[in-house]
Here is the input.
Amino acid sequence: MNKDEKFVITISRQFGTGGHEIGAEIARRLGVKLLDKQILNEVAKRTQAVEDAMEKIEARNPLWRDDFTNFYRNYMAKAEYNGAEQDQTSHELFEAQCAAIKQIAQKESCVIVGRCGFYIFKDHPNALKIFVHSSEDCRKRRIAEKYGLDLRDAAAMVVDNDYSRELYTKTFTGCDWFDARNYDISLDVRKFGINGAVDFLMKCIE
Here is the structure.
C-alpha cells in the first residue's frame, strides 16, 4: 500500500479484540476518515427503503442479534423459510452500504472497520486488508472488564458476536471470514496489546 496516494485500509476483527479502537487510532495517525457508524448515516440519506432495517441491524441489540443468528442458522441449514421480504431487505442494506463505502473511498483515503470491507475492496489497487484476532480467553476477559460483566456472560457475547459476523460474511460475500487469503495481514493482538498493534501496523503501512 502506498500511503502517498489515495488508499483504503480495511479492518476485520473478532469480537473483543479492540479492532475498532485499532482502526480509529490508525485513522487518527494517518489523518484520514474512519468509516464505521458514519456509513449508516450515508446510507440513510440515500436509501430510505432500508432505513428501518438499518437501524435495527446496526443497533446490534441482543434481541436483534438473537433474531439474526437464529435466522441464518436456519438459512444455512436450508430449513424452510418464508421471510423473503426480510432477506431481501437485508441484502438491500448490504448493497446500499457497499455503494456508500465505495463512493466515500473514491473521494478520499479512509479506514473501514468491519462491513466486509475486505470483500468490497478485494480488487482495489491500493488497499491494505487486515484481520485482527486473539484467543477466546483473552477476548472474554477484555469484554468482561469493558462492560462490567462476569466471565460467563462475556464468553457468551464473544461466541454470539463471532458467530453472527461469520454468518454475515458468508451470507453476503460467499467468503470464509477466517480465510487468511482474504487479508494482507493477520494479527494476534494478544502478542501486542492495542497500542502495540497500532505501532506494528503503522510500521507496515509506512
The beta strands are 8-13, 33-35, 110-113, 127-133, 185-188. The radius of gyration is 17 Å.
